[in-house]
Amino acid sequence: MLNILLQSQEEGTALLTDAEPVEKTLSIIELISSGGVAGQVIIALLFLMLVGAIYIYFERLFAIKAASKIDSNFMNQIKDHVSNGKIDSAQLLCAQVNSPVSRLINKGISRIGKPLADINTAIENAGRLEVYSLEKNVSILATISGAAPMIGFLGTVIGMILSIFEIANSGGQIDIKLLADGLYTAMTTTVAGLIVGIVAYMAYNHLVVKTDKVVYQMEANSVEFLDHLNEPT
């Protein structure tokens, strides 16, 4: 009898020794699905905001890059045409280049013969329109960068409310599964909101820097054009 007991204990010990611990993993999809309906709705909204932010960023980036491309010899050709009285040739060159700088210079060329102050005003007004065109939809990125974390925190509050509700109605027996769903909602929406906000914020600031470079380019060429008109003949 003693031998049988010892043998059964050894077999049990061998089974425990051979058993490997099971490591539980959780994918992003499982993490989102565990957050409940409220968490899934907020995650979906944040995902749409992320897609919109990425689209706006690349669309504006390509537009700004195209606007910044201009021949370094452009202004020299314009000044030569204006000095020789070839106004039509200068306007044709501006139309061929078709950039914010060329459109500003073309506006100034069309006012040649009027007082310099009027030419300057016309160029400034055209410049404001060009800047507005360059900054199209960029403000949406700023809105997303501020709104996304707030929406994420809203999910956090909802998740905590759900967890507290389950604790209050547990009757002394807390359902860990339902409690975990509320915590998943709280954590996943916070992380998602911060990620979307950071991406949109970085994209917005990068576009602002790129736009400022184009604006500086427009201002520099406009001043160069006005200085040329102000030179004594």
Automatic annotation (TrEMBL):
For this protein, the parts annotated as crossing the membrane are 37-58, 138-162, 182-204
What family does the entry list?
Belongs to the exbB/tolQ family.
Protein name (database record): Biopolymer transporter ExbB
The protein's superkingdom reads: Bacteria
Q: Does the keyword RNA-binding apply?
A: no
What UniProt keywords apply to this chain's record, in alphabetical order?
Cell membrane, Membrane, Protein transport, Transmembrane, Transmembrane helix, Transport
Name the predominant localization: membrane
Q: Which organism is it from?
A: Siansivirga zeaxanthinifaciens CC-SAMT-1
Please report the record's description of how this protein sits within the membrane.
Answer: Multi-pass membrane protein
Q: Which residues are in the MotA/TolQ/ExbB proton channel domain?
A: 98-219
- Pfam families the record matches: MotA_ExbB
Gene Ontology terms: biological process: protein import
Give an example GO cellular component term for this record: plasma membrane
**Where is this protein found?**
Cell membrane; Membrane
